[in-house]
């Protein structure tokens, strides 16, 4: 199952998760988005750059593909399946494997040549500097006299 | 950068009240997704603990109660404002009742790329043994 961009059904699913969390003793949402096909994304922004973090534990960094066009960031990847011998008995099988795609729109255009990505402890952190052309310019107001 | 697989020490038989203990921390606690499978020789548990390292994960086995815990610092980036959020960070907690006798000396726990791999070898008498049937 692949998710791209915004999807109303996904939003409904999120609401459902949020309600489940409220009515259950221990929170399960937030961490559980992976189970719905795509990892959750957090975006942090400052005046000059943005930080995007996503939780993709157990993914080989070689299988992560990041691309930026304008203000759109696309993260593609795949997580390998755990393949034990055929004659094992499964007690739980909650972890999801397979391909995922997410595209998010950032608050500004990005200088794609300066994007940096770091994968540590299952968390992907992408730093995206704002494009020079997109930076706000201060305009001084002159008086007529 | 990929993490190297790292070993985790396991606390055994640490005193713990029998009932579920509620924690009082100012953070959310999440239930990590797990895969558990059983082979003839051992039980393997894989748990997704993004953000956790071999230092922050705590594994306890008391009798047949296996507890996984990890405490994480909340995500924060100085000088940045959060503009969009789909996931939250917090601690992890999950406990299992193991049905098999476990050989405590041979338990192995490894952490790689935010995934915990716990291998619990079965104790000898619990192993399934094939019994030969002889003809008389």
Could you characterize the architecture of this molecule?
The complex is a heterodimer of chains A (145) and B (136). By secondary structure, chain A is mostly beta strands. Chain A is 11% helix and 35% strand. Chain A has one helix spanning 8-23; strands at residues 41-45, 49-55, 64-69, 72-79, 89-93, 98-105, 116-120, 123-129. Chain A has a 4-stranded antiparallel β-sheet with strand order 1-2-8-7, with no helix packed on it. The N and C termini of chain A lie far apart (66 Å). Chain B has a domain at 29-74 and 88-125: Sandwich (Immunoglobulin-like). Helices cover 0% and strands 40% of the residues of chain B. Chain B is built from no helices and 11 strands. Chain B has strands spanning 6-7, 10-12, 29-30, 34-38, 42-48, 57-62, 65-70, 81-85, 91-97, 108-112, 115-121. In chain B, a hairpin with a 2-residue loop joins strand 10 (108-112) and strand 11. Chain B is elongated, with a radius of gyration of 19 Å. The chains are: A mainly beta (145), B mainly beta (136).
């Amino acid at each position: 199952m692949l998710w791209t961009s915004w999807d109303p059904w996904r939003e409904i699913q999120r609401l459902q998760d949020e309600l489940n969390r409220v009515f259950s003793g221990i929170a399960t949402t937030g961490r559980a988005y992976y189970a719905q096909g795509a990892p959750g994304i957090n975006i942090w922004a400052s005046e000059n750059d943005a930080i995007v973090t996503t939780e993709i534990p157990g993914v080989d960094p070689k299988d992560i593909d990041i691309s930026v066009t304008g203000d759109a960031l696309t993260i593609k990847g795949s997580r390998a399946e755990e393949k034990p011998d055929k004659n094992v008995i499964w007690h739980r099988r909650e972890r999801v494997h397979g391909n995922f795609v997410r595209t998010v729109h950032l608050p500004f255009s990005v200088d794609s040549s300066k994007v940096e990505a770091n994968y540590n402890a299952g968390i992907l952190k992408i730093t995206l500097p704002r494009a020079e052309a997109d930076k706000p310019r201060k305009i001084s107001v002159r008086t007529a006299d | 950068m990929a993490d190297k697989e790292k070993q985790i020490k396991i606390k055994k038989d640490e005193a713990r009240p029998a009932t579920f203990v509620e924690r009082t921390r100012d953070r959310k606690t999440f239930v990590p997704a797990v895969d558990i499978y059983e082979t003839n020789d051992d039980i393997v548990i894989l748990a997704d603990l993004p953000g956790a390292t071999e230092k922050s994960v705590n594994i306890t086995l008391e009798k047949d109660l296996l507890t996984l815990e990890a405490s994480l610092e909340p995500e924060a980036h100085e000088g940045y404002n959060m503009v969009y959020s789909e996931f939250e960070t917090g601690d992890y907690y999950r406990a299992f009742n193991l049905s098999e006798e476990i050989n405590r000396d041979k338990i192995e726990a490894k952490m790689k790329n935010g995934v915990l791999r716990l291998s619990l070898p079965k104790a000898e008498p619990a192993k399934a043994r094939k019994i030969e049937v002889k003809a008389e």
